[in-house]
Each structure stands twice: as structure tokens, then as C-alpha cells.
Amino acid sequence: MRPQSETQIGAVSTIRLLQFQLLRKFVTMPVFINLMVAAPQMAILILVGRHDSERHSMQWFSQAWKQALLDLDPALDIRIWPDAGNHSEIELILVWNHPPGLLKQFHHAKAIYSLAAGVDHIFVDPDIDSRLPIVRIVDSYMANDIVQYVAAYVLQYIKRVQHWADKQKNSVWYKQPPFTFADKAIGIMGLGHLGGKAASILQQMGLTVNGWSQSPKQLPGVNQFAGDAQFHEFLSHTDILICMLPLTAKTENILNRNTFSYLRNGAYLINVGRGQHLVEEDLLSALSSGQLSGACLDVFRQEPLPQNHPFWSHPDIRVTPHIASVTNPVTAAPQLYENYRRLMAGLPLFNRVDLQKGY
């Protein structure tokens, strides 16, 4: 994306700073924001791209976002790609899986918003101006969704739901020896907003929970490991490995043969991170050897998952179509609108992505 000149950026910043300093002396923050956004509003572009088989649902997704934002402010100028109108009027772009290279057409963009918690789909575009703020969604409703999904499949595995369903098919009455939840240790990779909440809820259910992250975290009741130095130790204490990591250059392919080899024998994998975290051939090999007893996968390298993919028919793999946590425009729009108002007022944005970390 073509950057503005340093002179332009400096002039705009100086004017905004003077406005800020003057108004903040005399008005409260809500009044200040209202005054600062009273100027002509910036045009917003919703830019969603997806596989042809999902085109209809993506059109619905774009329209739902537009309506949710208009419900908050009917005066907003919102456009849906490809009907962008005059590109020079677009100052805010809301994106999900946009075609790489497309963003460079919008030279006056001031910020990019991901219409999801993840932002890896944005970083595949080589033409993004590194000075543009990128913002992601942090939604408690999405967090609840993914925690419920993870808890459901953890319980299905521990309580052997599929095993008993198979017994029923063959009219077999069989009881197993007693065990407690604490007999199986959970290992969560990634302790951010989503992973941290999952760890806390699973721990409250009586499960032993271990957590691993790039940097140390503080979560009551969760055994925590951090950094490369403690990764293998974390894995060695894990029966059910749950990947909730963001996708970065460092975490890509992290679910591989070597990682699986450090898990307890017969461990179970749940991946709700990204498909690129998993080396698919290594998963199939680990299942074949018995190193892993099964896997639940919600994300894949290629989505939709091809119909001839071996995961569909594998008896020990559960496939779901990336539905563990789905963005709800109605619940997520208020935070996006608040950031829009802050952008108009020249204020710092909430949930801004650290470009160095990639999340």
C-alpha cells in the first residue's frame, strides 16, 4: 500500500495533537470523542473474500456486518467489495481473507480491521503499509463459543462417547473401571484471551490443566510453562493437547512428528488454532503408530477441506468445518464502532496487533 509522505503524516499528527490538547482541557472524554467525530465521516469498506463454494455465506457475512454497524450509527458510509466506489474515499477497511494485493489500491486507508480474532489472513498480503494500525476482534461471546467447543470434545474423549456409541450399535453391555477427571492432563498451547479462558474453565471442571505460551502467564490453578526451554517438559505432562495458538512464522508446523513424540503415549489432539499449525502427514503417522489415539480438527490448510481428503474417512479423526468460534457481527460490532470513533478522534485504538509478534 502506498504510504503517505512523512510531511503529510507529520502535519496531520500535529493538527490532531493540538486539537486533542485544547479540547481535553475543557470537556469529558465522551464529549471529546463526539466533537472529534463531528467532522465528515470516513468511508468504510467491508472486504471479504472466500472460496467459491462459500460465496453466498460470505455475502451474507458482509451484509450482516454492514447492518450491525448501521444499527449503531445509521449515518455511516459503508461499502461492500467490489462496490467500493471512489477508492480515495476509503479510509477504514474491514477484512477477512481478502485477495492478496488488493489493499494497495486504497491509498488513503488509515487502519485495517480483522473481522475475526486471527490476523494471519492479513499478513499474507505483501503490500500492507507497516505503519497502518491493524486491529483484531476480542469478543467474550467468541471466547465462550470456543471454550464450549473445546470442553465438549474433551468430555467426549474422556467419557469415551464414541466408544459407547459403537457398543450400542453392536448391542454390547460393558462397564469400564472407575476413573477421575484428574487422571487425564490437559495441555493448552497458547494462553491468550481464548486459551486463557479455556484453561480456567477446564480447571474449574476438575481437570488437571497445563498451559504453555511464549512468555510467562499467571492463571490460578493452571500449571504453566513458557518458552522453548519448557516446551518439551510441557508436552511430557500432556494427555490431551489443545492448540489455541495464533499463526506466526514461529508457530507454523508446530504440531509435528517431534512434538507428538514428547506427548504421553496415546495422547489426543484438538486443533482450534489454524490448519497451518499441523503437519498433516505427521498426524496420520502418529495415529497409525499409536502415539496418538485420535484427533479433533476444526481448522485445515485448505478450506473447505477437499472431499477426497483422508481426514474425512479416518476412524480416529473428528472433522468440523471451522465452526469452533464464529464471529457474530451483532456482538462484535460495538467494539469495532468504538475503535472507528477513536480513529476519527485520533485516539489510540483498542486491541491493536503487535506487528513484530504477529498477533
TrEMBL record:
Residues 152-324 form the D-isomer specific 2-hydroxyacid dehydrogenase NAD-binding domain. Keywords: Membrane, NAD, Oxidoreductase, Pyruvate, Transmembrane, Transmembrane helix. InterPro entries: D-isomer_DH_CS, D-isomer_DH_NAD-bd, NAD(P)-bd_dom_sf. The chain crosses the membrane at residues 26-48. Pfam families: 2-Hacid_dh_C (PF02826). It comes from the Bacteria. The keyword Transmembrane helix applies. One of its GO terms (molecular function) is NAD binding. PANTHER family: 2-HACID_DH_C DOMAIN-CONTAINING PROTEIN, D-ISOMER SPECIFIC 2-HYDROXYACID DEHYDROGENASE NAD-BINDING DOMAIN-CONTAINING PROTEIN. This is Glyoxylate/hydroxypyruvate reductase A. The gene is ghrA.
